[in-house]
Amino acid sequence: MDFRRHRRLRHSAPLRNLVREHTFDMNDFIYPVFVQEGLNGKEEISAMPGIYHFGLDEFRREIVELSELGLPGVILFGIPAEKDDQSSGAYAEHGIVQEAIRAAKQENPDFLVMTDVCLCQYNPAGHCGIVKEGQIVNDESLRYIAETALSHAQAGADVVAPSDMMDGRVLAIRKLLDEHNYQNVVILSYAVKYASAFYGPFREAAHSAPAFGDRRTYQMDFANIREALREARSDVDEGADMIMVKPALSYLDVTRTIRNTFDVPVATYNVSAEYSMVKAAAAQGWIDEQGIVKEIMTSFKRAGADFILTYHAKDLAKWLRGQKA
Predict the structure, then answer these.
(1) CATH class of residue range 22-320
(2) How many beta carbons lie within 10 A of that of residue 301, not counting itself?
(3) How far apart are CA 147 and CA 120, in angstroms?
(4) Annotated active-site positions, please?
(5) Residue 132: pLDDT band with limits 50, 70, 90
(6) Cα torsion at 215, 112, 293, 190 (round to 10°)?
(7) Is the pLDDT of residue 95 over 70?
């Protein structure tokens, strides 16, 4: 028997495209957007080139542009003007995220609006749950987290995405949404969220660095994968419609394990440092930015992600349309 000629199927671009196993398109991307209370216009985030804090005026223009590019939706992160121990800005009727949801739906009613549901940006301690006597308390935090999700639904959010990693928050959110007749609001749970150094630039973007300690008592140890299965199983059992792995790039094995275990849609979050490292290398001329980003996105799809939250989404949309980013 002669040796196999595997290169036959790589002989031309049409052949390579024909047999390509994993692809992506604009429908695979959700764009994270930071909205800041009291800001006029927009301000670039120094640690994340090309990413901005938006005031509501400029945010409306951004929604129009994203819609024209063909991106399906955004996930919103809010930066309030004031913080308090009860994180009241997170669930205020006219809070910054709630107003941004209304603005987005006014500009494009069909645009998919997801919201990050967490308390860290809204309290001085910078933690994802309520702090009592120096401890992040779980059960008392659930009421505030669920109220935040409900306020987002009332403002018009399509998907609420709890990122706090408090035990039981998916159940608390689902029960409160259903009690108020928001049965059609989807829960995308940050089910598998690791305590990661890859979040560094985000802390600047969201003004959410912890005032004391760290988040290791509620976010997962990055060495663990069986724990990820337990976390995801709990959230699916509690009513999560979709689940997320975060971060993405160093956790492809986790995404594949979650994909092989659960039949709900799986997302992955291409987080801030993953983005900023690519941007920094591209700025130095060390890499082909477009080639690197497309390869990274393909790796997420190959690992099993159904869709990707990524700061590269806007650039990707332009590249896929043949425009310059």
Answers:
(1) alpha beta
(2) 18
(3) 15
(4) 193, 246
(5) confident
(6) 20
(7) yes
